[in-house]
Amino acid sequence: MKFPGWVSPFVLHDKGILGMNRRNIDYISAYNERRYFPNVDDKLKTKLIAEKAGVSVPELLMVIRTQREAESITNRLDGLQQFVLKPAHGSGGKGILIIMSRDGEMFVKGNGDKLTLQALIRHLSNIISGLYSLGGRTDVAIMEMLVNFDPVFSDLSYEGVPDVRLIVFRGYPVMGMLRLATKASDGKANLHQGAIGVGLDLAIGESVGAVQYDRPIRIHPDSGAALEGISIPHWRTLLLLSARCYEASKLGYLGADLVLDKARGPLLLELNARPGLTIQVANESGLIPRLKKIEALDSISSDPEQRVDYSIQHFSKRGKSADLFV
Prior knowledge:
By secondary structure, the protein is α+β, with helices and mostly antiparallel strands. It has 2 domains: 9-56 and 150-314, 2-Layer Sandwich (D-amino Acid Aminotransferase, Chain A, domain 1), CATH 3.30.470.20; 60-144. Helix content is 27%, strand content 22%. The chain has helices at residues 9-14, 20-31, 38-41, 43-52, 67-71, 117-129, 235-249, 279-283, 288-295, 304-314; strands at 60-64, 83-87, 97-103, 106-109, 114-115, 141-144, 163-169, 172-180, 196-200, 207-212, 215-216, 253-261, 265-272. The protein has a 7-stranded antiparallel sheet. It has a 6-stranded antiparallel sheet with strand order 1-6-2-3-4-5. Helix 7 packs across helix 10. The longest helix has 15 residues, at 235-249. The radius of gyration is 20 Å and the shape is globular.
């Protein structure tokens, strides 16, 4: 993780900042059995188990498994004006292609660039060949319905769908962040590519700070919209969806990425068994105190509603100042 200026390791320790090594050893290795990693590393499998668990997801349009299917996709695209293509085993937003509209025989991306049918087929071919997958193994391409995001975010994201990342530990949401696309991130809500992370008060879903490239930011660089005073609609429902992912995935430490669709409301996009740590910078709070509080519980509730109630009660930032960078 990077922080504005130089920050003493002792300060980070005092603020309860979770580092990568400790995350990997004390939480990912300790609470995530490897046999359950395919539940989240395979986005197609994630979608299927989420639906079975009653967690709403974007509509699956088709799965393209072979090069022959990719080359003969023309007729299957008839009538499809908007969609998202993604590798089932991709990571870090690589290989995701967002088509916002059609212009004759051309496919229009979120940034306005246009693709020919052959370019689209070539992208499918690259996905299937494993260009974007973990370990470079042969993959499959997933085509989903494009999420039409809630108009409350219309000035906050550059041409892409904003999403909410929630860290869930043993079924309890412990920290949240709104991720906003920028021109630099090519319309994708991926922090490594230049998207903005907005820290959220876990109790009420209101913004508490924002970062881009791990640096504090107050205004969206493309729209000029203020990043303060943001309030996320359907907040409790989002928390509840993330909590239910504990039973669905069987992973004790995970990141849940959710979106707000204008018509369908909260939806789960995907799960991550190795969620990043920049969420702490956006929230000006460390994860360790919250994780320790969950570890200290005598028992873990089997009721997602009760787990959400606990998180709302114990992980609010109202009236608190983290002073992380002092």
